[in-house]
Amino acid sequence: MIKVHNLKKQIASVNALDGLSFSAENGQITGLLGPNGAGKTTCLRTVFGLLQADQGYAEIDGVKVHEDPMAAKQQLGLFPDPCGLYERLTPREYIQFYAQLSGMANSQAQTATDKVIEQLKMADIADRRCQGFSQGQRMKTALAQAIVHQPRNIILDEPTRGLDVMSTRVLRELLLMLKAQGHCVLFSSHVMQEVAALCDHVVVMAKGKVVAQGTPQQLCEQTGKASLEEAFIALIGSDEGIAA
Amino acid sequence: MMKQITILFKKELLDAYRDKRSVMAGLYYAFGAPIVMCLLFSVLLQQMASPEALKITISGAERAPNLVQYLDSVDISHSDDAEAKSIQLEIDAAFQQDMATGRSATVVIVADKSDSKLIKSVRRLETALLRYNSEVAGLRLVARGIDPGLMRALDVQTQDQATPDAKGGLFLGIVTLSIIIAIFYSAMNLGIDTSAGERERNSLALLLSHPISSVQIVLAKVAAIAAFSILGLALVLVVSKFAYAMVAWEQLGFSITLDLRFILVSLLIGIPIALMSASMLIFVSFMAKSFKEAQSYVTMVLMVPVGLSMMTSYDIATETIQWLPIAAQQYAMIELIKGNALPLAPLGLASGLTLALFALFTYLSSRMLKSEKVVFGL
Amino acid sequence: MIKKRGHLRTQIRQSAIALGLLSSAGSYAASPDTAGLTPCYTKGLADRLMCGSVEQPLSANNSEKISIHFAVIPAIKLVHPTEAIMAFAGGPGQSAIEVAAVFARVLRYAREERDIILVDQRGTGKSTLLQCDMDPLEAQFAFNDDALPIFEYSREETQKCKSKLNTDLSHFTTVAAASDFEAVRKALGYQKLHLFGASYGTRIAQEYMRRYPQAVASATLDGVVPMQQSLVAIGDAIDDSLQAIFSDCANKANCRGQYPQLEQQYQMLLTQLEAQPASVQVPHPRTHNTIPLVLTQSKVRSAIRMALYSHTSRALVPLAISEAAKGNYLPLVGLMGSDSGFGSLAMGMHSAIVCAEDWPLLTEQARARFSASYFGRMMIESLDASCPVWQVEAVGKDFYQPLSTDIPTLLLSGGLDPATPPGWAELAMVKMKNARHLVAEQATHGVAAQSCADKLVAEFINHTEPKELDAGCLEKTAVRRYFMNPNGPAVASQEP
Where exactly are the transmembrane stretches of this chain (chain B) (predicted)? Predict the structure, then answer.
């Protein structure tokens, strides 16, 4: 479970986060929806302890991130934006490295790596160096890294960007599977369809604040619109920075 | 604690090993520097040496046949070549008259003593004339029934405590300079790549999002960079051992021999320097906003150790400087080549200071990794 | 005709046959302990040497020990750690360590890559020095050595020295010493040696080659003493070397002009002094006190003989003879007073060698032949007197066999050598299968010190191919022009 409580963060005189509070439950897929510049990435970075909030806190499985970052991060998997691959390593080496770093023993990490490679159907690229990978291949590798150690909480920052249709389907299936396994999945996106198709719970963000939250259906009802897209536009007052 | 460092250290080594270009750039120095130095030294030695048969221009040779014959016996002779013009020996018109009547007979050496190529030759000519002078003067005394030993009122005996290995002077400084610098340069690219580069490629944030502390990250990276520094050091030592053995130092009356003991002790001395160098590289790279900026900062900062090393090389270091890191270690290496005892006190202190700097840079770097400005290059 | 002390000294100096190298004597500072090597220095050489010693039996059937001292001149760059150059000093009786500076200079190119070992041969230097007492210069000047037959006087002086030394000289011969050099080589751990022998040093070098051929990589013999010939043969060499000056002077217009009839002048001078030695007062060469000089023909001959060794002093010979003929003995006094380089010969050890090795070779036939020269006669007489006193055991007949070897060997001779002329080297090499004899026509004793031979020696040691050497540079002469007056070789056109 991931919880943020009244997060405030000022970056260069802009209030990137302005009293942000929401929670993402286990066994649910929570979508963080907002236009570009709404503060999604800042929010996620704060959850990872990469940024210090000026006020408020983030909590993972009840552990406050700023108090015990190590314990908090132990239960997290991150799919970052941008991917942050090591160009000179192969996906297998890369995934295994992070598995070990997240606390798995060597042999355990190896097995988990093999498994996730199979799961994501990336055996064909697993032993090639990342240099020159397509965006889809990069995303898959990064995703594998995020879930290899089976964290209870998985955060994905814009996970579908640049994925081809097939990969997007794989990703969806994967997220649904994680959800079924009881993981807490939190992802940020500005792609409406994706959010609508996957999310159990949607948090709509704008200008560092939560504008509205609930199931996609609740949001539609709340705004009286037929589609999530229209509901969204109604909520934030414009469709700028949102993709259908 | 150690586990995380080890995992990251191994990854860094693998990553660095795959980065052939920057690794090789560093190791090229370690491999190439001694060889280039040796070629330069060889050319220099050749220029400094006086030619076996020294040709000069002698004017008025007919006035002093005995002197000319003497010079010829030590391979200094007259030639009309243009080359011989650079050193002229003018025998005074009154030479014979003065010689026969016991006056000092004048000979004039005309040469440009600022020309470093000529110095040895001019000195050789001067020495030959001095020898001739004392020979004739000695015979003048014998002809008068006097022991020429009387001219030596003092019998000055010098007992030179230096071994041939200790007489290399400036050359020893330059040799050790090139070895010390290898520690810094062989891992320079790697150091920048693993810090500023990692940040620029966005992998730093992901790494920091994992359960590994910033100190652990810095230590693992420092260890990896230092390992390459030591590799560079080992390479430069081995190449130097063979390369410098080829230079004909013995023509100048000394030799530079890098034995196994020197190599092992230098590696040991080099470890604190490598750690310090690695932590400094990381610190400076993180200070910079971009990879490019890091490169220029690092180049500037490296002037400091190089400067300290140069001061030792050219023997202009003051007493105080000789206790400082780099300078003291290099001094110890020079003493080792000379076959003298290791100066343990300065070496110990300087190594301690070096390690303290390593600790400081490591601490500062890990502090910086907690700053979002540094991590995201804001 | 009265005999006096000091006579023997002069005679012994005359029999100091093949002096190795002209150099001033020196003592080395450190006293090395028997265990390891200790740094040490010798006179005239600033470089730090390493000194040490080995214990050797005095003789095969005797438990007494003798310390053999040695010094190592370290290579500039030790390229060949398993090899070294071993240098043998002359005399016999010279200490190799004392003349380290000379060896360091002569072998400076060879030293660039190899250590040089100098061993004080038993009886010399620090290895149980066998030295007889030496008269001061004043006594030598005042003594009339023509007053009595040499024979009696030599015997008397020898007996004094014998009772002083109180040792059996038979343990100090070339044969006895050879094993010491091998012991030093083994103690220092060198596998191969390049020998460099000068003058008498060539004899001990040849003996070493004969006994330990497996340890020798090459040998350079400079001023060669053949095994099959007595050193007494030196008399002819002295005469020839002086004769070369007479002919040379007669052939050169300026010398002929200044010193006409030089040879006749010399003979006349000797004849006069033989009839009546000249008694004069002269200033002491160093103190300048006025001291008496009884100038005999043998003193003149000895002074001139010693002047023949170096080009520098040869330049004074015509002047010294000409002036003496005119009654000015100062140039001769200068020559007699400045040859201190020869003072360091260990005369006890010298006698051990010549009495065991050279005296027994004097057959009737040899005596007749060598007596043709003045110095030959004097030496025979001197040895006949002293050797029966010393009672040194004669060396075995095999010792006189010419050395048969295929070790690469370079022999060097000087055409003007007053001690070991080129003919001696030819005799020495009759059974050498890989040898080359180079003659520097214009060189005197010790070729390597006065020509480009120092470079040739280094090249030879590096390649050990005697046939490959380019000896062209030996033609270069180090000969000086004769002094035309006490100021130098120049003649003034007119006094200003």
Answer: 27-45, 170-192, 218-240, 260-284, 296-314, 344-364
